[in-house]
Amino acid sequence: MRDENKTKAQLIEELRQMRAEAGNQAEKTLAEKQTQHDEAQRIAHLGHWTLDLLNNELVWSDENYRIFGVEPGTANTYQTFLKIVHPDDYAFVDRAYTESVKNHTPYDIEHRLLMQDGSIKWVNERCRTSYDDNGTPLRSIGTVLDITERKQAEEQIREMAYQDHLTGLPNRALFYDRLEQGLAHAHRNRKLTALLALDLDHFKSINDELGHEWGDQALIKVGKRLLQCVRATDTVARLGGDEFSIILVDVASEEAACKIAEKVITAISQPLSLKKSQYTLGVSIGIHLISPGDGDMENIINRADSAMYQAKKEGKNCYRISEQSLS
Known about the structure:
Layout: H1 8-44, E1 46-52, E2 57-60, H2 62-68, H3 78-82, H4 90-103, E3 107-114, E4 120-131, E5 137-146, H5 148-162, H6 172-189, E6 192-201, H7 203-210, H8 212-227, E7 235-240, E8 243-251, H9 254-269, E9 272-274, E10 277-279, E11 282-289, H10 297-313, E12 319-321, H11 323-326
Parallel strand pairs: 11-12
Antiparallel strand pairs: 1-2, 1-5, 3-4, 4-5, 6-8, 6-11, 7-8, 9-10
């Protein structure tokens, strides 16, 4: 039953307290939701931001600052954001966002960040921009997702797909890709590209005497020696077993390709230390200088292989030039 003896002042005070309690509960609920939201962003590595285009004021969420590795409040303009972008991606990011605003289209790109400790992060950024009735851009709202782990996993998969698991050299798949590039480069720039087909001599004796484990060690050592014989722009690939191949781009002349072959023969002929003993290998090399009339890659590879088999037939541990290269 209502207490009719309460004064008007008492009723007003009770009402004030009820409103205060309701307000406190609302604030508490809002704070809890904000905490949950921040925690969810931390777990997802997902931040968000708002850019006031009229005043060039950038506001980031806490997770955004964690992703970018800077102190809260330090990246408060578009220009300060760009300073954290990897230098090689700077122009790409700036152009992508500028064109997004200009063309009234969503912004969705992946790019790198250069962290203060020199490490690199990958992020996916998305945003939409709002405009007034005259088409003037007012505000961009976007998200930033840290995709570094995904990029690292993709790189590992790529390495597994294109690298020889034993030597770390390009495998047959990557070799074909590099050869196709070398062929296109030769035709486009009218410069020589040479293909060297290599097959080790006497390798079977190491496998037979020491076993495949030591044979693998010999192949690893051979791969390292081959890399020392060429330039960074050239490709050394292991095609399988004891078969290797070298792609020489922008070769000055046939003589220059032959000098590389001689360098390879000298390097491979040096004794190998295996199981506390010294073993000597040789290498037979076939050289083919790629020309516009060679046709497809298989034809090019066959010509280099034919020259290599000729080298084996004529005594091994030497090189021969394909007949087509001489014609």
